[in-house]
Amino acid sequence: MTLHSPAPAAPPAPAADAFGWLEEVQSDAALDWVRARNAATREQLAGDPRFAPMRDKLREILDSKARIPAIARRGDALYNFWRDETHPRGLWRRTTLAEYRKPEPAWETVLDLDALAAAEKENWVWAGATCLGPDYRRCLLSLSRGGADATVVREFDSVTKQFIEGGFHLPEAKSRLEWADENTLYVASDFGPGSLTDSGYPRVIKRWQRGQPLAAAVTVFEGEKADVSVGVSVDRTPGFERTVFSRATDFYNALEFLLVREAGADRLLPIDKPTDASLGFWRERAVLELRTDLKVGDTTWPRGALLATFADDMLRRPPAERRYVPLFLPSPTRSLAGYTVSAQRLLLTLSDNVASRLEELTPGADGSWQRRPIDAPFPGTLGVSTLHDPLLKDDPLAEHYLLTAVDFLSPETLSLGRTGTDEREVLKASPRFFDAAGMRVEQRFATSKDGARVPYFIVWPPGAKEDGDNPTLLYGYGGFEVPLQPWYAAASGNVWGGHGGVFVVANIRGGGEFGPAWHQAAIKADKQKSYDDFIAVAEDLVARKVTRPRRLGIQGGSNGGLLVGAVMLQRPDLFNAVLCQVPLLDMQRFHLLLAGASWMGEYGNPDDPADWAVISRYSPYQVLQRLPKGTALPPVLFTTSTRDDRVHPGHARKMAAQMEAQGYSPLYYENIEGGHGGAADNAQRADMMALGYVFLWQRLGDAQAALPKVQP
Fold this sequence. Notes:
The protein is α+β, with helices and mostly antiparallel strands. Helices cover 19% and strands 32% of the residues.
């Protein structure tokens, strides 16, 4: 068995940190501490008579064969990765569009990950495949041990269904790869000392020839140690081939360079664009998505706009000489959620008051564009992906796209559409996993501390009244420009809403519900606004008698774990249960742990006294230590994963240990595998989810009404 490669060591915690030793992820002392708390938590939660039925129901949903198989087109085949109770690690499989249309498609297994893991005695978790078109025979498979972000990469033949003897192979690392051609890769990986950034991502890109030892690969691009990472993208569209290298100088800014060959030599041409703008190429055109305002001559294009120009102008002319055409301009309630392209058209997904709309744009030869709204389900969340393959000379699916539609009470449907018309063919529909009869959804608005209007959704169970006595779960994220749009929550619909619980989603600042401005309003020095917004929603729920503090719980993961950790300490009187998952909590050291340095663009630099003056006011680990003795806190369950190599498990470990030292009794559960997602397979995922829901019902439901808040 191959041993796990160790995570990069973080600088030792300061002596003043009594629980710094818990940052030693795999140390015997730390794991003994974890196992003891896991056992105590399982005794309280898994011993509850509600646990087993919940776990089994959640596992049934996760393993359901009736759910829609997600597909990705590669040449003539549609590929899917599928897990169920028979294949917990999963099958990589394929079929044709004609078969996929059938209620029961015939699938051809390409790789059985369960069989591979058993044969190699490895805990493999699927992390994706990068295949070389147009035949898509040669593939680079990424396999994770236990769900970590770091992967092993191996070359695979999708026709023979075998790993290629002597093919490309990378040891475990946070690698990024792109095919240059059949015998050449661009590789960003861990090449040894000095090859990684402070965030633990690759700093160096090499060109690697088939048959060549990795050590002999030629370095073609380098970033700096303080960068987040480097990257490369290869566009192999015939006649429009482009290779672009990039340096992510922080989470939101990147320097980009076009590889050009002149006078028989390669050189990198800097691309003159705003560093925080996203640039995409589409044949002879370039598309620019702005995160800050862009002034060109007498015109100022606003942040959140999507602009088009010709690629040659973008690459060869100074900005003042480029002719930009606006494809989308934001408004206070409308923002760009994304775009995709077919052979001839561009499809926009827009967010309109946190619900999706679609538009179709057709370019003219003179640079003008025709716009057509697409009739699609509303309100709800739409997802669009085109099926066009630019590497195929005659592509029968050049103007086809897949459309997913979903909302809180309606399960997902998948349709096949074609540009130029609103007619679509329903390919698949997910079954209803809970009875929505009598349930309803509302969108309401709370007023934050500074007067901002903050939207939130309420999913009401049947028969619920505004009597101030509903068990209510408030969920939020509020970071990294990630929007929380409606989704079909099959799990909570069963084990929460199906038993009378109210579910609330807060669209707080820091997220992406209203574009870059909504996000940028709550980062760095303004991060507290995310927490003010979340508190405002909670207060509104109480004021409007949706619930009361005794019945109100909060949930968040990752940045959302930081959110609920912060508001738990700022307003402990508002809540009676806190489900804090894979969280950031020690914000004085987040930038020193695993990928944490990459998030300074969101939070700031704790080593900068001015930044720390802001961060220290909300950093949960430090705020906890300053709490007056006797402060009552709501019950909390922390969950994380030993194999999370993105957000360090030390955050949750140290917070729980510090609470114990101050006389509190938090619950703590750490899955030994699972990565940042918290679980490596559906069995683990169902188990972790059931622990969380039992905790919520114990604290917020009638059966445990007498349980007090824990006081030291």
